[in-house]
Amino acid sequence: MTANATTFKSYIGVLFEEINPKATNKWINHIGIYHRTRTRPGLQWCPLCLRTDEVPYYRRRWRLGISSTCLKHGIILSCRCQDCGKPAVPHRSIYHQCHHCGMSRLSGNSHVADSQALQFEGMLNSGLLGDPVSIEAGKSMHPIIFYRNIYFIYSFLAFGPRSRSLRRAVSNSYGQVFGWPSISTNVVNFGALSSENRHALAGLTARLIEGWPWRFIGLCLDARFYWSWITKDNDRNEIPYDVLRIGDKYLRGN
After folding, report:
1. What confidence tens digit (pLDDT) does each residue in 30-48 have?
2. Domain range enclosing 206
3. Residue 161 pairs with which residues in a beta bridge?
4. How far apart are CA 237 and CA 151, in angstroms?
5. Domain annotation covers residue 68
6. Directed axis angle between helix 115-127 and helix 143-158, to 10°?
7. Quick check: is 183 in a domain?
8. N or C: which end of the chain has fewer CB within 10 A?
9. How far apart are CA 161 and CA 165, in angstroms?
10. In a domain? residue 11
11. How high is the pLDDT of residue 185?
């Protein structure tokens, strides 16, 4: 039991329905193994945690797509060396040094997390404990259903030629612009995003689902983010019911 609690298998039935060890899995960040090294920034870390740990170690949560912040220190997690830009490869490193340039992962600049993104990821984290969570006030749902909804919202906010208009509408409604680092053309899914991109997604999603579903409906209309686009780009059977119900009822004519 103790050993199993150190693996992703303990999240089956909460975050995952199942895990395929030979394929990519939703919510597990990609590390892009190639010739015993890593090409993707899938392993994140908090420099302050590593610096203050009695025995520094990398948390399971840091490999999950629901995490872009350190809930203890309130900063955005790092995912690449701040000197050379390489992802972390701990098994090829000496005492948390970058395997490529030698810079310590315990140092470097730490960026304060967006307050709503931090609060939202705290809620995402509570679902890992099996606690009921929801995108709608007064309505609880099983965590696995909740995560399915959030993954879908993350995906259409991040990708597709129409996603930019919705991100802009959410930002403008709060009078601020969220940083959105450019996504490489070879990044085609959520698991390959950087921690900065996923942090922007967390902040945007926290605001988009506030007062669900009315703000979501209003911002989609403001952005002219048509429901037909979502149903065209996605199999209706793959769209979570809570999103599908709202779209069909309030946005279907768009």
Report:
1. 988 777 777 888 899 999 9
2. 132-251
3. none
4. 15
5. no
6. 140
7. yes
8. N
9. 9
10. no
11. 43
